[in-house]
Sequence to fold (132 residues):
Amino acid sequence: MPPAELALGYPLPSNGSLLFGDRGRLLTTDMYGAHNKLLPEAAFVVYQPPTPTLPRARLSHHQEWIDVVKTGNTTMANFAYSGRLTEAFLAGNVAFRAQQTLNWDGEQMRVPNCPQADQFIHPHYRKGWEWH
Fold:
């Protein structure tokens, strides 16, 4: 758990995310966004969130999976979407570890402007544990 003072007096949930911005913080307490909290609360009393334009998952990812099986549609977080999102997050982790801004080449899975980042993308494994 992060230090409680990072949530500016709001109780931290056992699960969620705390995002920092220029004008405040966003605390999410569930993966469906039903319990988002802008902090400090006093700074966002008059804030009106935009009308949702993207479809929302029904109840849970389990129910979404059941709906997909019954209808033949795709999930909202199918691999075409979630794969790119995961790659973006992992590239962010590489940038953090390399401690610089990266020019990510997803096709080649490398960073042309930072050769030292390659150690985080393509690590060397000991004999018998190589990636094939």
